[in-house]
Amino acid sequence: MSKPFAIMAEYETPAETMAAAKKVHGEGYQKWDVHSPFPIHGMDEVMGLDNAKVGWFTFFGGGDWFYNGYGHDLFHEQI
Amino acid sequence: MSESTVQPKVETHTPKELVRVPLVSNNRSFGWITNQVAGILEGKMPRWWNVAFAISFLVTMMCFTYIGYLILTGVGVWGLNHPVAWGWAIVNFVFWIGIGHAGTLISAVLFLLRQKWRTSINRTAEAMTIFAVICAGIFPGIHVGRVWFAYWLLPIPNANAIWPQFRSPLLWDVFAVSTYFTVSLLFWYMGLIPDLATIRDRLRKNASKCTTGFEKLVNRIKQYLYGLFSMGWIGSNRHWRNYEKAYLLLAGLSTPLVLSVHSIVSFDFAVSQLPGWHTTIFPPYFVAGAIFSGFGMVLTLMIPMRTIFNLEDIITIRHLELMCKVILATGSIVGYAYGMEFFIAWYGGNPYELYAFKNRAFGPYWWSYWIMISCNVISPQFFWFKWCRTTPWFIFIVSIFVNIGMWFERFVIVVTSLHRDYLPSSWGYYSPTQVDILTFVGTFGLFMVLFLLFVRYLPTICIFEVKSVTAQADPHTKEGGADKVEGGAH
């Protein structure tokens, strides 16, 4: 038998999904994911995911706004 | 000491458990929620939709016809003249902008305050915000007189060195409203992404049911478009993690807009020197009024919608009741502001200010003032009674009164302050013309056209958010399967 490409399992409830995710994470799998029709709170910790990096993008977006709004005045000579 | 020996009386009975009314009634399943909401746009629209769309479309065309007439002829076709140089156009602008504020409050502020009841109403309220801002945006554009120079409102560097007047609050409006529209649109679209993916997947599943070639083609086009806009959403938890963070940040960024937009709109008046406009109470008073009017419009739209599409289990009586409480609170703030304006007019000792307010209530426009008071201050007071807050037809009637009252508030502020200023020789009486009235009526057509298209093509309820507030979505409850797992969810 050839090596399977992937393994998939379906669960009825969020708690069962979470328990399964906990087990998979404990086994040390790297390429795996949980799919759900709504965000399950607490799943990030169970999956061992760190904080989302969206905040940094937002922060630098704000920095860009600040530079465009005030930076030209503060850091550059005006006509 | 005898006191130390007294044993506290231990209550033996267990206290009665207070159970919250669930946000989705009748313990509906995930599948039911999806079917009910997605079913609206997957099924054939009922006949009334076609009729309503046809009427709204014709009314919209009438609006554009009158705008065309205005542009070809000039603002003289409106009732504007000296001394009332701001008439219905600015009244309608403030009216529509105000309507939008409920959407932003529901989506941003209630989200940050973790008011979970917002989930079933936020999509429609945000759609209403966007459509209302579109209707509002028409008026300043056509009010500038030479419409072909409306782009001068934007600070575009050009060879002629034509810059807008940065000290004018009307320019601040341009920035406030364009930011508001952009952020509202992004927020709305972002909330739609997971639901668009749901619709896309269901279309793929239903493709086999298509019998004719045309149906298959429509299905393919729809799959493509919903798929394009759902950005490859697959419900992965790694996506949800980023999604939720982004939604939270966007909510935080749009929260200031709830306060800033209508504050800046109020500066249009408050920054001037005119008695009746030149007051510091304007920004908070306008913001409260905006939220008040917006919730009025949300209820006007939601009450028929929940009945027509059988959404009573998702938009429950509890949702309506909570919205009525917001109306009662903001309506009372508005009532307080009306009273305080009068008080300060007297207490401030400025005879012109006092005259402006006396004239407002008892002058030639007394009727508009008292329509405003009865609709905005008296009608929401019914919501002190539970029966009034929980009876949909009654709420609907009050919501109509709120809409009417808030239009009249802006009319009172604009017209009564302008029509009699310092010099009695320049006093006058302003009346709108047919063009004024029918252009405004026409914007309701535009609003309804957009809203009907929204109902037809997009999920009117945020499917995934409604699911996430049910008991079966929580891994720590029995409904969420906690009893099936050893040691609970963790």
Quick summary:
The complex is a heterodimer of chains A (79) and B (490). Chain A has 79 residues and is mainly α.
Helix and strand topology:
The complex is a heterodimer of chains A (79) and B (490).
Chain A: H1 14-27, H2 43-47, H3 54-75
Chain B: H1 30-42, H2 47-73, H3 88-112, H4 122-143, H5 169-206, H6 213-229, H7 237-270, H8 282-308, H9 317-347, H10 351-362, H11 366-378, H12 386-390, H13 392-419, H14 434-457, H15 463-468
Helix pairs in contact in B: 2-14, 3-4, 3-7, 3-8, 3-13, 4-5, 4-8, 4-14, 5-6, 5-7, 7-8, 8-9, 8-13, 9-10, 10-11, 11-13
Characterize the structure shown.
The complex is a heterodimer of chains A (79) and B (490). Chain A has 79 residues and is mainly alpha-helical. Chain A folds into 2 domains: 48 residues, no CATH class; 29 residues. Chain A has 3 helices and no strands. The mean pLDDT of chain A is 84. By secondary structure, chain B is an all-alpha fold. Chain B has a single domain, classed as Formate dehydrogenase/DMSO reductase fold. In chain B, 66% of the residues lie in helices and 0% in strands. Chain B contains 15 helices and no strands. The longest helix of chain B has 38 residues. The model of chain B has no long low-confidence stretch (mean pLDDT 88).
Structure characteristics:
heterodimer, A: 79 residues, mainly alpha, B: 490 residues, Formate dehydrogenase/DMSO reductase fold, 66% helix, 0% strand
Strand percentage of chain B: under 5%
CATH topology of chain B: Formate dehydrogenase/DMSO reductase fold
Largest sheet of chain A: none
Biggest interface between protein chains, with counts per chain?
A: A-B, 31 and 38 residues
Helix/strand/pairing category of chain B: mainly alpha
Helix fraction of chain A by DSSP (H/I, runs of at least 4)? 40-55%
Oligomer: heterodimer
Low-confidence region ranges of chain A: none
CATH class of chain B: Mainly Alpha
Total domain modules of chain B? 1
Average of pLDDT of chain B: 88
